[in-house]
Amino acid sequence: MFSQRYYADGLQTLSKGFAKINNNTIVRTRTGNGVSDGAKWSRPFRRGKHVFEIVFPRQMRGKHASVGIGLKKAALVSDCNKTLVGSDEHSWGVDLVTKEVCHNKQKIGKFPGILTSLPDRFYMYIDMDVGSLLFGQEDKFFGVALTDEHLVGSVVYPMVSATQMGAAITVVYRGKGKHIDGPIRKKRR
After folding, report:
1. In angstroms, rounded to a whole number, what is the distance separating the alpha carbons of residues 151 and 128?
2. Which residues of the chain have pLDDT under 50?
3. Which segments within 71-120 are labelled E, that is strand?
4. Cα separation of 140 and 142, whole Å?
């Protein structure tokens, strides 16, 4: 259920390569594709299940767009063109182009499913009770991208990153979630 206390939340901590359009939308303004720029959500999460809707069009992702979670110390910029979220010991992420799951500069898995890439609009589900990151869309559950027991009790921020100039990313908090093993939302009729 949506809470008014989350109304003012949004993408707040940005690298210098992003411009804020509103609380929920940012655009990458840095020229060139040699740097990865990142952004963090304003409010951290320590426990519970939380659902975020992310709009990140495929044609704007460039070579290494990523989403995931990070600790307060997680890097927001990288001098080389690589997956930023998951590039250090303080973040865990999924490269939206390659579907690789990354943490601490290492590939720790491949995102499950038959999708060649995540769609333009999808849901990121953070389950801090078990330390999991899951994905889906309106009527499909894509699966668990990662589970790390070391995340339980940690304070994490949802994160996004992009390498392509002009990339527009929107992230909206959709509320606290419940245990899911199917589509994140019911199919509309």
Report:
1. 7
2. 1-2, 184
3. 77-78, 91-95, 100-103, 106-110
4. 6
